[in-house]
Design a protein that fits this description.
The protein is α+β, with helices and mostly antiparallel strands. The protein has two helices and four strands, in the order E-H-E-E-H-E.
């Protein structure tokens, strides 16, 4: 059974557009490999709530998707190993 999830990822503000798009496609591909991407909203550049490693803003991307329970772990692993990702969160929308 597939659960509904939402993930918000904040990318470094100094990424070139091409690199940023490649990264977003990569994350969408990870989801699509074993799930279903429902919606991708690029919020664009926003000021961070607080400075992280001297970075004051980031490029926000919100994705809604359906997947089995193993996929978020794999997605988070990829977020962690990517230098371009400042912060991320994956939320299970089925959890009450």
């Amino acid at each position: 059974m597939m659960n509904k999830y939402e993930t918000l990822v904040i990318l470094r503000p100094d990424l070139e557009e091409e690199k940023r798009n490649e990264l977003i496609e990569k994350f969408k591909g990870i989801i699509a490999s074993d799930g279903e991407v429902e919606e991708v909203n690029e919020w664009g550049m926003k000021k961070l709530a607080y400075e992280i490693n001297k970075i004051k803003e980031g490029y926000y991307v919100l994705m809604n998707f359906k997947a089995n329970t193993d996929l978020p772990k794999e997605l988070e692993r990829n977020y962690r190993i990517s230098d371009a990702v400042i912060r991320y969160i994956v939320i299970n929308l089925e959890d009450k």
